[in-house]
Write a structure and sequence with these properties.
It is built from 1 helix and 6 strands. The mean pLDDT is 79. The radius of gyration is 34 Å and the shape is rod-shaped. By secondary structure, the chain is of the alpha+beta class. It starts with a strand and ends with a helix. The strands form 2 sheets. The protein has a 3-stranded antiparallel sheet, with no helix packed on it. Strands 4-5-6 form a 3-stranded antiparallel sheet, with no helix packed on it.
């Protein structure tokens, strides 16, 4: 989809499938002719200042401007959820390692006390 602003300020959207008028009204001054195919549109505008011919390429790829706030929010929430899951897993793994190392240290201390108590 490609957005194009006419000389009268009216915005239109050009897609490979059609021409969409943006907004709640259309106000055409002078003469406007739009001829399009799936790749581009030729827009001829005749106003009191003269004739203006525009060739506009039609981009049907979604751009970042086309994404709604909901789409962006959903993407960010998904990324945050995945990051939280990774952090939770990492913290759990670190806790397990610390507990294991603490158990090993406690066992070494116990063994040392046993050896000292037995006179070895």
């Amino acid at each position: 989809m490609t957005e194009f602003k006419l000389t009268n300020g009216q915005a239109i959207e050009l897609t490979k499938d059609g021409i969409l008028i943006k907004g709640d009204y259309i106000s055409l001054e002078g003469s406007i002719t739009i001829v399009k195919n799936s790749k581009s549109a030729s827009i001829n505008q005749i106003t009191d200042k003269g004739q203006l011919l525009s060739i506009v390429p039609i981009d049907d790829e979604e751009t970042s401007k086309d994404k709604t706030i909901e789409d962006v929010t959903a993407t960010l929430n998904d990324r945050v959820s995945r990051l939280e899951a990774k952090v939770t897993t990492l913290v759990r793994d670190i806790d397990s390692m610390l507990i294991s190392e603490r158990a090993k240290t406690d066992q070494k201390i116990t063994d040392l006390y046993s050896q000292l108590a037995n006179g070895k």
